[in-house]
Amino acid sequence: MEGLAKFAEGFIGVFQQGGQTFVGLVTGIIPLLIVLMTAVNALIAMIGPEKVENLGKVAARPGILYYPLRYMILPFVAVFFFTNPMAYTMGRFLPERYKPAFYDAAVSFVHPPLGLFPHVNPGEYFVWAGIAAGITTLGLPLGDLAIRYLLVGLVVILIRGILTEAITAVMMGRKAAEKK
User: Fold this and answer.
1) Contacts of 132 by beta carbon, 8 Å cutoff, 6+ apart
2) Is-contact 112 145, C-beta < 8 A?
3) Which residues contact 157 (CB under 8 A, 6 or more apart)?
4) ∠ CA(163), CA(126), CA(19), 5° rounding?
5) pTM, whole model, 2 decimals?
6) Which of 74, 87, 138, 161 could cross-link to 82 by cystine, CB 3.0-4.6 Å?
7) How far apart are CA 178 and CA 64, in angstroms?
8) Please, which residues have CB within 8 angstroms of residue 112's CB and are 6 or more apart in sequence?
9) CB of 97 closer than 8 Å to CB of 109
């Protein structure tokens, strides 16, 4: 009987801990995310959505000169302003040959800015919060990690965008050759 009682206490303890975690979220991160999302929406309204969309049209220009704009700046702006998952809609301004690479870059960038801009992917903020808890426990600065995470993310999405664009070109070339 004693073992059954300990099991029951442990079982309910899991839910009590879950309830405490939930209360912490409701009084901590959720209001922060709501305020950040409201601020970003206000910023978009002040800048004008058409200006943000025009950036996508410029990024659609062909050439190596537009790689950083297409696979670093555009995904950053899309993720920052439109957040996950709406950020992927910015790809609509790009020709078909660039859409897979833009998507790859954008989807790869929804985690790196979380340390500085938690509104970009609130559903995944808990991943960053777990990392932050470990870093804080070690007594290391969190800001340095957040900035490095963001910068490495920008380099990675540029590389992924360029590689995916090249792979897409090969695949589209094969498909066109098959049709002939």
Assistant:
1) 115, 142, 145
2) no
3) 71, 72, 75, 104, 105, 106, 108, 109
4) 155
5) 0.72
6) 87
7) 28
8) 149, 150, 152, 153, 154, 156
9) no
How many angstroms separate the first and last alpha carbons of the chain?
A: 77
| HEC assignment per residue over 121-163 | CHHHHHHHHHHHHHHHHCCCCHHHHHHHHHHHHHHHHHHHHHH
- Classified as helix, coil or strand, 95 is coil
CB atoms within 10 A of CB 147: 13
Q: How confident is the model over 88-108, as pLDDT tens digits? A: 888 888 889 999 999 999 999
Q: Give 98-126 as a 3 state SS string.
A: HHHHHHHHHHHCCCHHHHCCHHHCHHHHH
